């Protein structure tokens, strides 16, 4: 099943963004041009250095953050080393895991008594920000702004869930949908440090899987950190491949005061 799921993952990556003219890349950029992500790359060894240079140059000119998600089977095989040489900063290695969706798949995600609310109003994203702030996430206001924009522009493409205890926001997570491919992707799972190991992660995964099943998705994917990988594996998720983000931050504008 892994080969089929890996093929489905690659198909999803290729359909999730726009093709770039600089080599065989698929990119997804924010509508306000504040960030851009390379989701898929399949470049030839002879062209990759020029492709990287051009993508970094575009980020410099437009002053947006460029993230390049590298999967172990992306080409060329030395892509990570070339990105490092070009000034990209590596992020943590994650495991891409997949689950074939069915009602039976929910059996291993026990229901809980936690109150879990879907966030429809962008103003309620302050609860997500509160969770992110407690765990020390960077760029909280910028992320809140981008999520609010996504909820306003295409509410069918993303759902945000927040778990509450005594009306306190304690954990959150997102799910993204591609209805053409019937694939969903889990993202943004976070739990306050004071509320961990209480089943909140499990409860939020279950809530998002329920929506994916209602929307007749076939598979769900997730980039899992080492802390969540064993939880998901125990509940039926299958490891597919490792992925690692590489971030390029454009140089800040500088100028001299003249008198």
Overall pLDDT level:
90
CATH homologous superfamily placement of the largest domain: Gcn5-related N-acetyltransferase (GNAT)
Which ranges are low-confidence, i.e. pLDDT below 50, for 5 or more consecutive residues? none
The first-level CATH class of the largest domain is given as Alpha Beta
Q: Which structural class fits the helix and strand makeup?
A: alpha+beta
CATH fold field value of the largest domain? Aminopeptidase
Give the helix level as a range of percent. Answer: 25-40%
Number of extended strands: 12
- The total number of structural domains is 2
Major sheet, described briefly?
Answer: 12 strands, mixed
Order of helices and strands: HEEEHEHEEEHHEEEHEHE
What is the radius of gyration computed over CA atoms, rounded to a whole number of angstroms?
A: 19 Å
Compute the separation of the termini in Å. 69 Å
CATH architecture of the largest domain: 3-Layer(aba) Sandwich
The percent range for strand residues is 25-35%
Q: What shape does the CA trace take?
A: globular
Number of helices: 7
Explain what this protein looks like in three dimensions.
This protein is α+β, with helices and mostly antiparallel strands and 259 residues long. The protein has two domains: 2-95 and 244-248, 3-Layer(aba) Sandwich (Aminopeptidase), CATH 3.40.630; 102-217, Aminopeptidase (3-Layer(aba) Sandwich), CATH 3.40.630.30. 31% of the residues lie in helices and 31% in strands. It has seven helices and twelve strands. The protein has helices at residues 2-15, 48-62, 79-85, 126-134, 140-153, 200-214, 229-234; strands at 18-20, 25-29, 35-41, 65-71, 89-90, 94-100, 115-119, 158-165, 168-178, 183-191, 219-224, 238-248. Strands 1, 2, 3, 4, 5, 6, 7, 8, 9, 10, 11 and 12 form a twelve-stranded mixed beta sheet that branches. Strand 8 and strand 9 (168-178) form a beta hairpin. Helix 4 packs antiparallel against helix 5 (140-153). The longest helix has 15 residues, at 48-62. The protein is globular and about 55 Å long.
